[in-house]
Amino acid sequence: MTKQHRHIRALCEGALMLALAQALSYLKLYQLPSGGSLTLAMFPLLFFAVRWGLGRGLFVGFTFGLLQLLFDGAYAWGWQSMLLDYLFAFTPLGLAGLFKGKDWGIFPGTLIGCAGRFLVHFISGVTIYRIIEPTNIPGIGTYGNAYIYSLLYNGAYMLPNMLLALAIAGLLFYPMRRYFRGADLR
After folding, report:
1. Distance linking the first and last C-alpha atoms of the chain
2. Burial class (CB in 10 A: 0-12, 13-18, 19+), 22
3. What is the CATH number of domain 3-185?
4. pTM, whole model, 2 decimals?
């Protein structure tokens, strides 16, 4: 496969995975009142990053964040929230690309990518909390500590999202093993 052919294939796969992730982002299994939801959207982005590597994975994650900002009815409390919760939050999913070519790379890649995304949402939650404090989470209570609020709120959707992405990877791993490793790209 020539370098130009690989580049075109990466662009095509990236576009397909972005389209799939965007479509899946509209199928919300649940949504929290101030943004954040459980969807299947992260898996195609993680899959692409593990196949194509860090640089392309980060780019596709950033592009997905931009699409979410434009088309998902961005829930933002200010410019900080727009930058952190959309443009920067999905970019770390590309960290899964650190495990490109590794036999079981999709699993640690998913953990690292999701941890990176959670960290950005956590920082955003602490920042936004300072704007709207104290914060009430219906059915749970009012929080006077920005760090606890952000940890609980963002953990309430990021942990299930990570577990869902790991479960999908587990179901697809054996039938798609060569694709996870990128063996078809050589």
Report:
1. 7
2. middle
3. 1.10.1760.20
4. 0.90
